[in-house]
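Page 47, continued from p. 46.
Same chain as before, 141 aa.
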Amino acid sequence: MIEQLHTRLITQERTLFEGDARSVVAPALGGQLGILIKHAPLMAALGNGVLKISSNSSNTYFVVLGGFLQVKDNRVIVLADSAKAAEEINLKEAEEKLAVLKNSLEAITGEGEIDKADELRKELNLARINYRAARLAHKNS
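Result:
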């Protein structure tokens, strides 16, 4: 029997994924974190980004916003502050939102709008993550 990583993605509201995987790539605070079978025990804080769960037949993508990841005995538990399946994201809408936010940020001028620019940069970062996840999910389907 082929060894697998029993993987769970959980938020406060629900379990988004539970199943076996060959690998998991997660957005840790310090960069992308790859987990394979027989990985050493690990705890890591998660940042915002795309979580990729690879099984023998496909890849499944999720947008994850913060949380923690634990690896122990071929088990991966992702406790996300917030998460959604990439396949639930409308690619066209994500692309349009990204364009609108880029244009809004480029249109800001003057020092009086620094707070607005900072807020737009945060929204733009989340829009980029959503767009990337949607693009990966739609390419994979």
